[in-house]
Design a protein that fits this description.
Radius of gyration: 21 Å
Distance between the termini: 6 Å
Number of strands: 24
Strand content: 25-35%
Structural class: alpha/beta
Bound molecules: ligand EPZ
Helix content: 25-40%
């Protein structure tokens, strides 16, 4: 198994270019199933999760050409199946995002029940309730979920009990070719949902209000295809901004949409970092001493749960007390034990963690417990005294393209060992 070795203490300096957003491209690739014509997706990040969802589409008869780097040419003119296999769905629960598109395109879907993961049980009740509201019949059993709508889906009004990102995306895709109009209320507002809506509209869809708590979808007869450039990854960008802030770094993060980074930039400034916003870049300079802050994760436009672990590393070495409340997932403190092993002073109680800043973290062997916790371990290693060895880094490869090269070009002493 590969491991990462990080030697702490180097001050990061330089420019890093952010890749396309994992959490935008996954639903967009699923949405390609809706189209009867070819699509070309640009700025596609080279990630394990992207390869997984492409394999799911290929099982359905979709033709995908990935010979040009960061580009996917997708031909869904001929869908021959409606089943997403167990081994792919367990590898990545986001495979469940194909259900809405399959229901809309072929009126049937059979997906292995997505498992939970380290950060929570990850139920799909909001997805299924929405599909039923649109007229689909749902059957569950033997580890599979089958949805069918032989006479097509019918538009309706759906109120979401929680603004679930995946459920909002699945329901946009399902409703895109339903008879009549669908209104989704209390839905998620993440930028990745806006990117998906832009792609569906480019294919001939009528999705209005993405990025607000209410989305209106007028069903259309057919969706075609076309070219779409995926938005930059705000979580990868945030990860590098924290990296610059915690080690008295001085880095420029390029290819970003500053609008998507507002909650993070506000918190970095509160902690004492100097942050300057450009047109499509952000410059961060880390101070000698960071101040403790309070962070509460919330659905967008609140502070993103996917940046919670990374921000906790900053809090571990800030002066004074910090507090984190994780309101989105029920078990997203797996990184706390690993940080405590490195000398952090953290106490958790339910969904809240109290952090007393310490002078130093000490390098040791730690593991990546999930994707963003793995990124947090890299950040901790960058500022720790000595060498940090990170295992289970397959989590990191799911969501960060070339993370070692990107950190090395900023001057970090980091290497991947077999
Ligand atoms: C997406 O997951 C992201 N993944 C996650 O990023 C991100 O953390 C999450 O949104 C929240 O922003 C992708 O986009 C591929 P949710 P998703 O449905 O859609 C509960 C990363 O690191 N819920 O908004 O699965 C659920 O249990 C990953 O890139 C239900 O109760 O998130 C959770 O507590 C991690 N019933 C909360 O909602 C449902 O039917 C948020 O889940 C669905 C969700």
């Amino acid at each position: 198994m590969d491991r990462l070795l990080v030697q702490g203490g180097n001050k990061l300096k330089g420019i890093v270019r952010i890749s396309g957003a994992k959490n935008a491209v996954l639903p967009i690739i699923a949405a390609a199933i809706l189209g009867t014509k070819k699509s070309a997706l640009l700025e596609v990040p080279n990630l394990d999760d992207v390869q997984t969802i492409c394999k799911v589409l290929e099982c359905l008869g979709v033709k995908i050409d990935n010979t040009i780097p960061h580009t996917l040419k997708i031909d869904s003119s001929n869908i021959i199946g409606f089943e997403a296999p167990y081994e792919l769905v367990t590898a990545m629960r986001a495979s469940f995002l194909v259900m809405g598109a399959l229901l809309a395109r072929v009126g049937r879907a059979k997906i292995s029940q997505p498992g939970g993961c380290a950060i929570g049980s990850r139920p799909i009740d909001i997805h299924l309730k929405g599909f039923e509201a649109l007229g689909a019949k749902i059957e569950q059993g033997h580890g599979y979920i089958e949805a069918s709508a032989p006479h097509g889906l019918v538009g309706t009004t759906i109120y979401m009990d929680f603004p679930s990102v995946g459920a909002t995306e699945n329901l946009i895709m399902a409703a895109s070719m339903a008879k009549g109009t669908t209104i989704i209320e209390n839905c998620a507002e993440e930028p990745e949902i806006v990117d998906l809506a832009n792609y569906v509209n480019m294919m001939g869809g009528k999705v209005r209000g993405a990025g607000t708590p209410t989305i209106r979808i007028d069903g259309v007869k057919e969706l075609t295809g076309g070219e779409h450039t995926v938005i930059p990854d705000r979580i990868e960008a945030g990860t590098f901004l924290v990296a610059g802030a915690i080690g008295q770094g001085d880095i420029v993060v390029e290819n970003v949409l500053c609008e998507h980074l507002k909650p993070l930039i506000a918190k970095l400034r509160e902690a004492g970092a100097l942050v300057e916003e450009g047109i499509d870049a952000v410059h961060v300079v880390g101070p000698k001493t960071l101040k403790g802050i309070t962070v509460k994760t919330l659905p967008y436009p609140g502070f993103p749960t996917d940046m919670q672990a990374q921000m906790m590393v900053l809090m571990c070495i800030a002066k004074g007390q910090s507090e984190v409340t994780e309101t989105v997932f029920e078990n997203r403190f797996m990184h706390v034990d690993e940080l405590v092993r490195m000398g952090a002073n953290i106490r958790t109680s339910g969904r809240t963690a109290m952090i007393d800043g310490v002078k130093k973290l000490y390098g040791c062997q730690v593991k990546a417990t999930d994707l963003r916790a793995g990124a947090a371990m890299v950040l901790a290693g960058l500022v720790a005294d000595g060498t940090t060895e990170i295992t289970d880094i397959y989590h990191i490869d799911r969501g960060y393209e070339n993370i070692v090269q990107k950190f090395r070009q900023l001057g970090a002493n980091i290497e991947r060992v077999r």
